[in-house]
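Action item from last week, closing it out:
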Amino acid sequence: MHTAYFITGTDTGIGKTRTSGALIHALRQAGLARVVGMKPVAAGCDWVEEQGEVPGHWLNEDVAAMRDASSLQVPVGFANPYALPEAMSPHIAARRAGVVIDLDHIEACFHALHQHADAVVVEGAGGFIVPLCEPDPDLGGDWVTSADLAQRLNLPIILTVGVRLGCINHALLTQEAILARGLKLAGWVANEVDPDMPERAANLATLKARLQAPLLAHWTWDPNATPADLARSLRLP
């Protein structure tokens, strides 16, 4: 069993955090005592005041959910190295916050977590190739994307497919991008996000035929399902 996974998705808002939380619980249920979630870049945060000498910090709801699921509690700066206040594409949120996303820093935080945890579940931002940082207008440089982060960490990838109209194209394009970078697609999760989607079964059959990885879970529309509930139907890669 791998001790770390990278969770990506076909889009934003399609259930990556559901997959991350369920995987954390599934790993714990499999006997791993110290499991921690990590979201390297989160855009859209609320300011949280702490008591005593602990300073306040920005906290994203996905990060909070992963912390709740984790059995190993770590400083929020390691679980979420970049907390960007505004809810928008990370590269824009980073620019507006005056922040430069540094993959070296993220990788160092990941390895620090990995040294102390039995398993680390890393959740990407948005879709697989969402920009994290744009070139400096004065110094130049390259775009940095979530795909670059996935390559840097070189972890098995679990793809969350938001089951709705258009999901086949989105899933196949994401698979193509993952495999083109030499990364392993370890499995995928079908997460229903549109309860009224027509021909749902036919779409799922096509995804099963075309995605080159095992289906780890199929979650029907249920906004009240908890990560622990979902973990019971999640097959580990």
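Closing note: Residues 4-231 form a domain with the Rossmann fold fold (CATH 3.40.50.300).
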